[in-house]
Design goal:
The complex is a heterodimer of chains A (100) and B (842). Chain A has 100 residues and is mostly helical. Chain A has one domain. Chain A contains three helices and no strands. With 842 residues, chain B is mainly α. Among the domains of chain B are: 173 residues, Up-down Bundle (Cytochrome C Oxidase, Chain A); 141 residues. Helix content of chain B is 65%, strand content 2%. In chain B, the strands form two sheets. A two-stranded antiparallel ribbon of chain B has the order 1-2. Chain B has a two-stranded antiparallel ribbon with strand order 3-4. In chain B, a hairpin with a 6-residue loop joins strand 1 and strand 2. Chain B is globular and about 85 Å long. The chains are: A mainly alpha (100), B mainly alpha (842). At the A-B interface, helix 1 and helix 3 of A face helix 9, helix 10 and helix 21 of B.
Chain lengths: 100, 842
C-alpha cells in the first residue's frame, strides 16, 4: 500500500491544489469577497504554497527511497511532473486579470 | 529488499499429469450446460465474450445512427429527416458510442484477457462481473427500446439543462437517458472495482509491480479513473432527475439554481472519460507493438509514469469544454495551461512506441497495420486538441463541426483502431483458431483512408462555420461539396467496419485450429492453452521477469503439468492465488464462488429499480429496491465459512491462509475502492453546494438553516458511537467476547446521527422552494442513506456472529462493516457541518 501511495500522492496533491486555487478564484470573484480586499496576493500565496507542497513531496521521496528501484524511479518522475504541473498550470495567477 | 520468489526445484512429476489435471479442473470450473449456463456463469471467459458481443452490437447500432446523420447532411435542405427525429438520432449516436460501446468494449477485453495476463485463474469478484454485465445489458437495451419507440432523448449526449429540464424536454426522453445511463454507470463501477482488486492482488507469484504486463498498469489506472470520474456524473444525473421528477430547482436560476452546475459536473466526468477510453487502447498498443516489432517495450517505467500523469492531469481540464460560458480570464488561462500540459505525457508514450519500433524489426501483420492507422490518425487528433486548448481559437470553432471532427479523430483513431488491432492480436487466444480469410486487410484499406476523407472534410466544414447539431443547411453556404464528400466516404468507412466484424466472425467459427503463442510473445497470457480453458492456468505460474515466456520457454508446459502454485485439484473447489500488492509474494488462497443465478437476479431487480420510474412506476421501483437489499444479503450470506480451516498447501512448500481467514480479504479491498467512489460522489455534492453558494445569481435564500445545540450534540455523539461500535465489535470477535454491546453502541450511533439529519428535513420542509433547501435535503439524504446501510450491515454482522461465521481468524467481515461505519460517521459529520455552517455565521 505504501508503494501505491508513493506513486499516487504527488499528483493527487497537484489536483487538490489546482482545484483549491480555482475554488478560491471563484470565491474572490463572488459577492462574498470584500470588494476592497486584493485577491491576487491571496492567489499567489496559495500557488506558492502548492509549489512548496509539491517540492516537499519530491524531497520526501528522495530522502526515504523505496526498496523497489522501479517504484523509486517512477515516483521521482511523478513527483517531478507534479511539481512542473503546479508551476505551469497556475502560472496565470501572476499575470492574468482576475475576474474579467 | 525482499527476495522475489524463484521457481523452486520440485521433484518433477511423472509424465502424463497434465491431462488428468486438465480434466479435474475443467469439471470444477465448468459453467452450467445450455441456456442456464449463460445466466449462471461467472467465468471471465464467458462474461468477457458476452460483454464483447453485446458491446459490438451497440457499436453496430451506433454506426447505423451515424450513417443516418451523414445521409441527412449529405445534401443541403434535406427532407430525409425532420429536426425532431434528427435530434434523437445524433443524441443517441453519441450516447450509444460513448456509454454503450466504448467503455463496455474495453471492459470486455479486460475481463477476457486480464486474468491470463496476470497469471491468475479468474477475476477477483466473478459474480460482481456477471452482475455488471447484466445491468449493462438491461440498461442499454432499455435505452435502445425507447429509441425504437420514438421516445429517445433529444438534448445531445451531454444533456445540458435548461434544454433537458422538464420545461423544454417534456416527455420521458431525458428520463430514459438519465436513468438508463445511471444503471450503466453502476455496471462500470462494479467492473472497475473488480479490475482494480484483480490487478493489485490476483497475480502470478513473483509478479511485482515492476513485472506487471503494461496493459495491467493501464487498466488499473483506468479503473481508478472510473471510480473517481463517474461519481460527479452520477450526482449530476440524480440532481437533474430530481429536478425533472420533483421540481427541486438545482438548475433553475429563478429559484437559486444554475445550469452551469450541470456543465461542471458533466465535464468533471466527461473530460477524464476521453482518457478513460484512450488509455486502455494505449495499453493495448503498448502490449501489441513490441511483439509486432519483435522486441521489448522501450521505457517501461516512463510509460507507466506517463499513463499515471495523463490520468491525473485529465482531471484538471474539465473547464476547457466550457470556455465560452463567461468564465473569468484567469480561469480560462488555468485550464488552457493544463490542457497543453497533457501533450507531454501523451508524447512520451508516442515516442516510447516509435522508439520500440525503431529498435525492433516490425512485421506488417494485421494488428500492426491498425496500429499504424492509429499513429496517422491520433497524432492529427492530438494536434487539433492542442489547437482547441488555445482559448481564442476555441471561441471561434466552439460548437462547430471542427469539434466533431476532432473528437472523432481522437476516439476512432485513438480507440477504435487500436481495439481492432487488439481483437486481431488476441483472436488466436480467444477462439483457438488461426486467421485464414483475409477480409481484414481489405477492411483496413477501406476504413482508414475513408475515415481521413470523411473527417478532414468535416474539419473544413467546421472551419467554414458549419454548426454541429443543426439538422440541415442552406444551399449557398459553401458546405455542399464538403458534406457530400464526407457522407460518401463515411459510407465506405461503414462498409469497412462491417467487413471487420464479418472477418472476425467468419475466422472465429470456420478457420483451422491454431498453435499456442503464434506471435512469439513473452507475456503470460500466451502460456495458457488455446482457446483458454475455463480455469485459465492448470497451476499459478511463478515468474522472475517481465517476459516470463522469453525467460523460460518451457513455462507453458510446466504450468500445464501443475508445477506452479495450486496445481492440485484434490480440494475440488475454485482456488486461485492472492499475492502481496507490491512484491507479488504469495499471501493467501482465494476460493472463488461457483455458478449462480444470483448476479442475474440481482441485476433484474437493480435495473427495475432504476428503470421503473421512467414509466412513473415509483412503487415498483421501491419494491425492487427492497429486492436489491434482500438479494444482496442472501448473496453475501452464502459466502464465508462456519469453521476455521487454517493454512492450506499452495504448492512449492507454501502454507497460506484462506482469503476468508485474514484481516484484509478481497471484500475489504473492494469496499475500499467502492468507498473511494462514494467519497468522490460526496465531494461532488459539496462542490455543487459551494458552487451554488458562490456563483448562483439568486442567492442567498430567504434564510439559512440555524443549527440547534441538540442536533449538533446528536450528530457528534452519533458519529462517535458509530465509529467506536464496530471497532469494539472487531476487538470483541478477536478476543472471543460478546459483540452485542459493541453492536448496540453502533446502532445507537446510527439512530443518533439519523435523528440529527432528520432535523434538517423537519426544519426545511420544502425542498422545491429554493436550490439551497434542495441541497440541504440531499446532504441529509446522504447521511440518511449511509446510516440505513450501516444499520443493515450491523444487523447482518450480529446475525453472522450468532451463526458462527466470525472468529479471531475470520475477522474480515467485521472490519468491512467498521470501514463503512467510519465512512458514514466522517462524511455524516462533514455533511451536517456543511448544512449548518452558513447559518452559524448569520
Amino acid at each position: 500500500m505504501i508503494e501505491i501511495l508513493r506513486l499516487s500522492v504527488p499528483l493527487t496533491v497537484w489536483i487538490t491544489g489546482f482545484s483549491a486555487v480555482y475554488a478560491v478564484l471563484g470565491l474572490t470573484c463572488s459577492r462574498h469577497w470584500p470588494p476592497d480586499f486584493e485577491a491576487r496576493p491571496v492567489l499567489i500565496a496559495l500557488w506558492v504554497a502548492v509549489i512548496a507542497l509539491q517540492a516537499l513531496c519530491l524531497a520526501a521521496i528522495l530522502r526515504a527511497p523505496s526498496s523497489s528501484s522501479f517504484v523509486q524511479a517512477t515516483s521521482i518522475i511523478l513527483a517531478a511532473t507534479a511539481l512542473v504541473a503546479a508551476i505551469w498550470s497556475m502560472l496565470p495567477v501572476i499575470a492574468t486579470s482576475s475576474c474579467l | 529488499m525482499t527476495a522475489t520468489p524463484q521457481p523452486q526445484a520440485k521433484p518433477k512429476p511423472p509424465r502424463g499429469t497434465a491431462l488428468p489435471l486438465h480434466r479435474a479442473l475443467s469439471r470444477i470450473w465448468a459453467s452450467d450446460p445450455r441456456l442456464r449456463g449463460w445466466l449462471t456463469t461467472s467465468n471471465n471467459n464467458d462474461i468477457g465474450t458476452l460483454f464483447l458481443i453485446v458491446a459490438t452490437t451497440f457499436f453496430v447500432i451506433g454506426g447505423i445512427l451515424a450513417m443516418l446523420i451523414r445521409a441527412q447532411l449529405a445534401t443541403p435542405d434535406s427532407a430525409y429527416m425532420q429536426p425532431q427525429v434528427y435530434n434523437q438520432i445524433f443524441t443517441m449516436h453519441g450516447t450509444v458510442m460513448m456509454f454503450l460501446f466504448a467503455i463496455p468494449f474495453f471492459e470486455a477485453m479486460a475481463v477476457l484477457m486480464l486474468p491470463s495476463m496476470l497469471g491468475t485463474r479468474d477475476m477477483a469478484f466473478p459474480r460482481l462481473g456477471a452482475y455488471g454485465l447484466w445491468v449493462y445489458i438491461f440498461g442499454g437495451s432499455a435505452v435502445i427500446i425507447a429509441m425504437l419507440m420514438g421516445l429517445a432523448p433529444d438534448g445531445g449526449w451531454f444533456m445540458y439543462p435548461p434544454l433537458s429540464s422538464a420545461a423544454f424536454s417534456p416527455g420521458i426522453g431525458a428520463d430514459v437517458w438519465l436513468l438508463g445511463i445511471a444503471s450503466i454507470e453502476v455496471s462500470a463501477i462494479a467492473t472497475a472495482i473488480e479490475v482494480a482488486v484483480t490487478v493489485l492482488r490476483y497475480r502470478a507469484a513473483g509478479m511485482s509491480l515492476s513485472r506487471m504486463p503494461i496493459f495491467a498498469w493501464y487498466i488499473l489506472i483506468v479503473s481508478v479513473m472510473i471510480l473517481t470520474a463517474f461519481p460527479p456524473m452520477i450526482l449530476g444525473s440524480l440532481l437533474l432527475e430530481t429536478e425533472r421528477a420533483l421540481d427541486w430547482p438545482f438548475f433553475q436560476v429563478e429559484n437559486g439554481g444554475d445550469p452551469l452546475l450541470w456543465q461542471h459536473l458533466f465535464w468533471l466526468f466527461g473530460h477524464p472519460e476521453v482518457y478513460i477510453i484512450f488509455l486502455p487502447a494505449a495499453g493495448m498498443i503498448a502490449t501489441i507493438l513490441p511483439v509486432m516489432a519483435r522486441t521489448n517495450l522501450l521505457g517501461y517505467g516512463w510509460v507507466v509514469a506517463a499513463a499515471v500523469s495523463l490520468a491525473v492531469l485529465s482531471f484538471g481540464l474539465w473547464v476547457h469544454h466550457m470556455f465560452t460560458t463567461g468564465i473569468p480570464h484567469i480561469g480560462l488561462a488555468f485550464f488552457s495551461a493544463a490542457s497543453t500540459l497533457v501533450a507531454v505525457p501523451t508524447s512520451i508514450m508516442l515516442f516510447s512506441w516509435i522508439g520500440t519500433l525503431w529498435k525492433g524489426r516490425a512485421r506488417m501483420e494485421l494488428p500492426m497495420l491498425w496500429i499504424l492507422g492509429f499513429f496517422a490518425t491520433f497524432v492529427i487528433g492530438g494536434l487539433t486538441g492542442v489547437m482547441l486548448a488555445v482559448v481564442p481559437f476555441n471561441w471561434q470553432v466552439h460548437d462547430t463541426h471542427f469539434v466533431v471532427a476532432h473528437l472523432h479523430y481522437v476516439l476512432i483513431g485513438g480507440y477504435v483502431f487500436p481495439m481492432i488491432a487488439a481483437v486481431y492480436y488476441f483472436m488466436p487466444l480467444i477462439t483457438g483458431r488461426t486467421r485464414f480469410f483475409k477480409l481484414g486487410e481489405v477492411a483496413f484499406w477501406l476504413v482508414v483512408p475513408a475515415f481521413h476523407v470523411t473527417f478532414l472534410a468535416v474539419h473544413m466544414a467546421g472551419l467554414l462555420g458549419q454548426r454541429r447539431r443543426t439538422w440541415t443547411y442552406d444551399a449557398d453556404q459553401g458546405w455542399e461539396t464538403l458534406n457530400l464528400v464526407a457522407s460518401v466516404a463515411s459510407f465506405v468507412m461503414a462498409i469497412g467496419f462491417a467487413l471487420v466484424i464479418l472477418d472476425v466472425a467468419v475466422n472465429a467459427f470456420i478457420s483451422a485450429r491454431g498453435r499456442r503463442n503464434p506471435w512469439g510473445a513473452g507475456t503470460l497470457e500466451w502460456a495458457a492453452a488455446i482457446p483458454s480453458p475455463a480455469y485459465g492456468f492448470a497451476s499459478i505460474p511463478v515468474v522472475t521477469g517481465r517476459y516470463p515466456l522469453h525467460d523460460d520457454p518451457d513455462l507453458a508446459c510446466r504450468i500445464a503439468r501443475g508445477e506452479g502454485h495450486l496445481g492440485d485439484a484434490s480440494r475440488n473447489r475454485r482456488e486461485t492465488l492472492i499475492v502481496s500488492t507490491a512484491r507479488g509474494e504469495p499471501a493467501q488462497v482465494a476460493v472463488l464462488p461457483g455458478n449462480s443465478v444470483m448476479p442475474f437476479a440481482l441485476a433484474v431487480v437493480t435495473s427495475t429499480s432504476f428503470l421503473a420510474p421512467i414509466a412513473g412506476a415509483y412503487i415498483l421501483s421501491g419494491i425492487a429496491l427492497i429486492g436489491v437489499v434482500v438479494l444482496a444479503l442472501v448473496w453475501a450470506w452464502g459466502l464465508g465459512s462456519r469453521v476455521d480451516q487454517g493454512p492450506v498447501d499452495a504448492g512449492h512448500g507454501a502454507l497460506l491462509p484462506l482469503a476468508t481467514e485474514v484481516p484484509d480479504p478481497p471484500g475489504w479491498w473492494g469496499s475500499l475502492f467502492l468507498l473511494l467512489a462514494d467519497g468522490v460522489h460526496f465531494g461532488s455534492l459539496l462542490f455543487g453546494y459551494a458552487f451554488l453558494w458562490t456563483v448562483a445569481p439568486n442567492w442567498p435564500p430567504q434564510s439559512y438553516l440555524q443549527p440547534d445545540g441538540w442536533s449538533v450534540a446528536l450528530a457528534l455523539a452519533g458519529a462517535g458511537a458509530l465509529a467506536a461500535g464496530p471497532r469494539l465489535a472487531v476487538s470483541a470477535i478477536g478476543r472471543r467476547r460478546a459483540v452485542w454491546p459493541a453492536i448496540a453502541l453502533g446502532i445507537g450511533g446510527v439512530v443518533s446521527l439519523t435523528a440529527a439529519a432528520a432535523s434538517i428535513w423537519l426544519e426545511r420542509p420544502n425542498p422545491a422552494g429554493h436550490a439551497y433547501d434542495a441541497t440541504l435535503w440531499l446532504l441529509a439524504g446522504h447521511v440518511g442513506l449511509h446510516t440505513v446501510l450501516t444499520l443493515i450491515m450491523l444487523f447482518y454482522l450480529a446475525a453472522r456472529v450468532a451463526a458462527g461465521y466470525a472468529s479471531p481468524a475470520r475477522i474480515g467481515e467485521a472490519r468491512i462493516v467498521s470501514l463503512w461505519a467510519d465512512f458514514t460517521a466522517a462524511t455524516g459529520l462533514v455533511a451536517l457541518a456543511a448544512a449548518w455552517l452558513p447559518g452559524s455565521f448569520g
